[in-house]
Amino acid sequence: MAKRGKSDKGGRGNRKSPRRGPPTLREEGKPRLDDPYLKWALDTGFTHVATPDKVANPSTPFPLLMELRQDITIEKFAELAAETEGAITVPKLFADPPQTLAAERHCVALVTRDFLEDAKFDSLRDMIERFELGLPGLEFPSALPGARELLSKPTVLTAVIDDGLAFAHRRFRRADRTTRVEYLWRQGEVPLVLSGTEIDNAITGSTHAGLVDEDEVYRTLRHENFLTIDHKTLSRRRAHGAHIMDLACGAEPGSLDDQAIIGVQFPGELIRDTSGAWLHAHILGALWFILLAAEAIAAKNSIGSLPIVVNVSYGKYADSHDGKSLLESAIDRLVRFWSGTVAPLAVVLPSGNNHLARCHASFRLAAGARRSLRWRVQPDDRTPSFLEVWPGPPDHSGVAPNLRVTLVPPPPGQALKVTRGQFERWPVPTEELDPFALWSADYRAAGPQTHRDRIQLSIAPTVAWDERAVAPAGTWEVLIENLEASGSCQVEAWIQRDDTPYGWPITGRQSRFDDPDYDRFDPSGAYDRARFDGSELCDDDPMKTTVYAKRRGSVNAIATGNEPVVIGAFRKGDKRACWYTAGGPLRSPGARVGPDPDAMAVGDESVACHGVLAAGTHSGSVVAMRGTSVAAPQITRWLAGRMANRLGATRADVQAEATAKDPGTPPISADRMGAGRLDVRGPPRVSRSSPD
Questions:
Q1: Which helix (DSSP H) or strand (DSSP E) does residue 193 occupy?
Q2: What CATH class is the domain 360-540?
Q3: What is the assigned CATH class of domain 156-346?
Q4: Half-sphere exposure (CA, 13 Å, Cβ side) for 500?
Q5: Which among 414, 487, 489, 410 has a CA at the least distance from the CA of 455?
Q6: Closest C-alpha to 266, from 162, 189, 139, 133
Q7: Distance (Å, rounded) from C-alpha 669 to C-alpha 627?
Q8: pLDDT means per 10 residues in the chain (692 residues)?
Q9: Is the Cβ–Cβ distance between 18 and 440 less than 8 Å?
Q10: Residue 470 half-sphere exposure toward CB, CA atoms < 13 A
């Protein structure tokens, strides 16, 4: 039985109070909101998606990524939202779009928690095709600072959306010591937008004896506040964003003066908690900011529209993997429109590092058959765990998938059983007691939100920051049954990402499928990574038909759209796939056309020398980091170079280059390699064998 926590003033644990629950969610006959993550947030009092002070404040704004109906413009929606007296607002970034983006239907709105819990939301709900919840604390700038006139006119713009952007680093300066970073937006509760002029002034004021005190620059511009106890990314030796930014657009001063940079830094809360689909609203907001900033730079310098390449070295594990998710649809639409009417635009994404994470299950269920999956939920996990089940399309028999899913916790917990259209949670709220849910099962029938049936299983953290109730750790059973008398059904299931990024205090711990037939070790008992490097199709072993935990198809869930360039990772030394690099194939209807990923770039130098060398957080430092996250920005740099020379910079161009340059041996499955392997880096500026 799960532990029951004591109540406190923050409203955590079980509580006795008059029921003020949202009628749109709990009352009989009322529809449920479309986003399962929002449903989970409401049923848990938002305690897992916000800090206690934000939970206690009913006016806390939560970002909603939205796709409006075909006949509704963002401007019209913003006008109607204004009538809610601040309960829902559309930021000026979206509400007053330039003519180039006036026809867009994807936007972000800020909605108070009280409004989400109120039936009034239904008054605007009819205008929205679908929506997703984001983490609170995303405020948008009301206006962009003025762009500056540049002596060296930029020919291309590289944008980096990441964490820990070390914009004062000398690798992002020109020969005259001015910065190449024309705009930087630090997302958060207090949005900080810096212009190139402001950064230059801070660098000049922080230069002593000819040396720039970069920490003083960040303090002066309030980029990092050492008066608070939150995480200080740039005070560490290395940061993900600094490394990625160097690989994408870093250079010695004077060598890339014609390439401008825009940076968007994610808020710390978003980086720390990877457990849900929380980053989507932040990414779309960043893309709009980049496009508007690019237009401002171009207009100020009278150079027409600038070609843009955007690097987003982030991802998640679970979603539909059919290119139709809300964020993927928004990115596809933006890239197609901007490239077709304004200037070339490319978005580069990593294929993911979860090839061996055991977070993907794939199998076919015959009519009347059942399959039991073991879901291992970690102890000491301070964030929720989610599993998404996506039944496949109707097979040749024409029978649509019709499943029954049972979530069985470790004994003696209460099992939940759902069929299409049903929702179950435990504990069950009553008139006297309205406790927060500890686990739930939500079966959504195909509709505008997903286009396919979707079952989401949600489990609360297994340890709490305080005395609130927690879910049990251990092996949970997920029993999936095909209720149809005829017609088999393909089932794909993904466990959502729930790890803690490097350098952050550990909060999330990744859950996984505990498949007894999954091979983790070689015959000698050693951990067998070598067999999984892509040189053989281990998932296709005919002797292992009972295995449901699959390595194939574990590609980054926001990288299955048709427009972004998706990059995996290989080892330079022996040309084999890095053991972590994820790939396809994508069996979902309407999935990405062509290979997935598009190509591979270097993720590790060799078996012994892990990672790729690039900038640390301060000038003069060089560190190694590994992953498809460091492979993607290498292609970002290559695409920027092609754009600067007015050459093609699309997926097809990446694939053509990879096909032409691939060494051919050793063989790697196209499901992970794509069109081929590319090492587009120039001569190294520092060697691992160099003396200190």
A1: strand 192-195
A2: mainly beta
A3: alpha beta
A4: 12
A5: 489
A6: 162
A7: 18
A8: 38 36 34 78 90 86 93 91 89 90 93 77 78 91 92 95 96 94 93 95 96 95 80 89 97 93 92 84 97 96 95 94 93 96 97 94 93 97 95 64 95 94 92 85 81 93 87 98 88 94 85 91 63 48 73 93 96 93 78 86 95 96 96 98 96 97 91 94 72 40
A9: no
A10: 17
CA atoms of 311 and 382, how far apart (whole Å):
30
CA–CA dist 85, 63 (Å, integer): 17
The pair of three-digit structure tokens given for residue 404, joined into one six-digit string: 């029954």
Q: Which amino acid is at 203?
A: I
Helix H or strand E encompassing 426? strand 423-426
Encode pLDDT of 375-418 as tens digits. Answer: 999 999 999 999 999 998 655 555 678 899 999 999 989 999 99
Question: Can you give the residue ranges of every domain in the chain?
Answer: 32-133, 156-346, 360-540, 565-673
Amino acid in position 453 = D
Written in H, E and C, the secondary structure of 227-296 is CCCCCCHHHCCCCHHHHHHHHHHCCCCCCCCCEEEEEEECCHHHHHCCCCCCCHHHHHHHHHHHHHHHHH
- 371 - beta bridge partners? 480
379 preceded by a cis bond (ω within 30 of 0) = no
